[in-house]
TrEMBL record, chains A, B:
Its EC number is 6.3.4.21. Catalyzes the first step in the biosynthesis of NAD from nicotinic acid, the ATP-dependent synthesis of beta-nicotinate D-ribonucleotide from nicotinate and 5-phospho-D-ribose 1-phosphate. It comes from Cryobacterium adonitolivorans. This is Nicotinate phosphoribosyltransferase. The keyword Phosphoprotein applies.
Amino acid sequence: MTETSAFRTDRYELTMVDAAIQSGTANRECMFEAFARRLPAGRRYGIVAGTGRLLDLIRDFRFGDAELDWLRDNNVVRPPTLDWLADYSFSGNIWGYREGDAYFPGSPLIQVDGTFAECVVLETLILSVLNYDSAVASAAARMVSVSLGRPLAEMGSRRTGEHSAVAAARAAYIAGFASTSNLEAGRSWGIPTMGTAAHSFTLLHDTEEDAFRAQVDAFGASTTLLVDTYNIERGIELAVSVAGTGLGSIRIDSGDLPTVAAAARAQLDSLGAVNTQITVTSDLDEYSIAALSASPVDAFGVGTSLVTGSGAPAAGMVYKLVAHKNAADEWVSVAKTAASKASVGGRKSALRLLDASGTAREEIVMVATDGPAPAPAAHEPSVSGATERSLLVPLMEAGVLDERYLGAAGTRLAREQNAAAMRELPIDAFRLGRGDTVIPTVYR
Amino acid sequence: MTETSAFRTDRYELTMVDAAIQSGTANRECMFEAFARRLPAGRRYGIVAGTGRLLDLIRDFRFGDAELDWLRDNNVVRPPTLDWLADYSFSGNIWGYREGDAYFPGSPLIQVDGTFAECVVLETLILSVLNYDSAVASAAARMVSVSLGRPLAEMGSRRTGEHSAVAAARAAYIAGFASTSNLEAGRSWGIPTMGTAAHSFTLLHDTEEDAFRAQVDAFGASTTLLVDTYNIERGIELAVSVAGTGLGSIRIDSGDLPTVAAAARAQLDSLGAVNTQITVTSDLDEYSIAALSASPVDAFGVGTSLVTGSGAPAAGMVYKLVAHKNAADEWVSVAKTAASKASVGGRKSALRLLDASGTAREEIVMVATDGPAPAPAAHEPSVSGATERSLLVPLMEAGVLDERYLGAAGTRLAREQNAAAMRELPIDAFRLGRGDTVIPTVYR
């Protein structure tokens, strides 16, 4: 079945376009904004991810004959709207936070300006991508921050939808993971892939020794042998006897890891395999990784908790109309005012206040009342040595996207941005316990 | 970028094939099984979903030139393995639970038999699809069971990856949801779509009245007006004044819903709009839906909690080798025996014991020690009036899939199966509080 990003959309976006074409408001200039009202409970910062994927999907957001026929057959919209959709191609501007940067409640992560109709139809796609990818990146960053520099591999493809798996691998890599098990993520986004064998490979052979020998014959002694199919102690003994003391690594996927890792290290050392590394992969999350700080673990493989956002599987971002031109062609700031979901209208620009040591102290959101484009923000050092880092960059201008953010190159750029953003965060950001956001959001 | 389901795979599956081709074990006949060791904490039953999607993806699981080139360039596998992958097409058998059926710990949900190599490469794809889709269906079934027959709409596309959104809509429909907001789910799977307008439509217009008038002009008085952009009471008053007492429905997306719904009903009635329905859509889950049992709510829209499995975003299924032929061409049952992740080897068949009233009492898993095909199971009423329902059906035979399970027709079939399975569950299954699985799994 052919699919287009244009149909990964909620029906109401098209019915709104339909009604707005009829009422004459479809072409009003508008600014929409994606932001999170709050972080997931107890989180101190969030990480923006998905932007590079999103730009590609927005470029491909077109309604072909198959889509138009389906909309006509199902009476979703009327003929003038079908004509408008047939010609659709986003021609407005998109500004946004750099992919990989940190964000806080109210950070104006994506700003989309254009006509109402061309902006509103992107709502679902923008949120699907940002909410999932940022949820994974935000969880990944916490895991990386407690790994003490030891490499983390993303191995969660089997615990999330088969396409989300690829996005999750990418988001984890942006947030500092070293590699992924997912082949498509390797191909599409240039992420290093890893993986050698599962328990089924050991079980397939008549003996564990046969299995280890087959694997070492195939990949050499530098491979990783999975030693916990039957009995870990016996597995390690066999692994070293088959591969020799040059065995690259053992993998342990079960048991109480601090105990098991310590015993495995002692056994490997006693067998002379002093350079053989230990990789652990059993239901890890940021808490269990932190609990292995003092353990002789050389690498981690993380699955379920990573790709499900470690308790926060959606980042909670929303996409709201914040300003539009009215019947008199004047810009008007708008916001929902109903209980519990009020938001701040008006176009925004955003700065991160850094103190003289380069540490983030405030997320500054400046609210304007006119014009659609975010004003360039000041960057000057103040008397105190503080600086203000401008957070918004142009991603698409007049429908043309900035190619630097796409593909493997864009993914690497986001990974670098993430590393820089993490260095700016106050040390309190890295406490795993529940707490408030690590810097306040200040509106000016 | 062209993608194939074959690359939504963990690298280790291909390296296992590579080593097994070299060691001569790649063509050993094997049986793999997908099952859940346990249900998510506190859940009493699970719902199988994803099967219809999965069969399509297995049929399309092919390695094209682009994939083979990438594997060669990245030295993932050797030339004999590349040749084997180039010819790959699954030619074995797959048996499984009917999509939409209930499952319990240890239920043999999917059984795959064929050569080691052809079965092992499907691991990630099978688990990605089943784990996500079943997580959503299992959450959806709980919501449906407390909705007292009032329709539920799936509106969570924006809270999960853009492809998972389509799968989530399908899984929710199988578990009894009435409709979805997602257009691709409507097109691909024949699910009724719904949706009219967001707050942005109201905010776009110079007044709320202008917005309501535009919508009623476009869609008639039977439309659903979103009344909580500014003030609900004023919104309802305006809605009825614009649309008349024939207004189809109002939607409320904020506030304390039991209070707000009661006030809205009273106001609508006092305005004479006695047939105008009330739809609520604010951060609902099974608990808040249950809390609205006595409220005058006519329909629910559910987003985040549904598409993220309501606290259990992955169903926890694993895919394990349970039996294979050894060097002497004899069937051997196998299982990992290491701590905390031991499983039951051997091929299985499965029955659900129903008492004389047709209520499920036991999940019976029969373990055999020879042969790959599940034995047909007895179905006879016993003296007590109890029956045993056979749970496994053939999905693919010698690589040919049963077309009845595909597309919109297969989705409807799964929805019917789910309705039947839910009627069999003991009443305790529908308690929302945490508890044990509602029937025990018994091994014979």
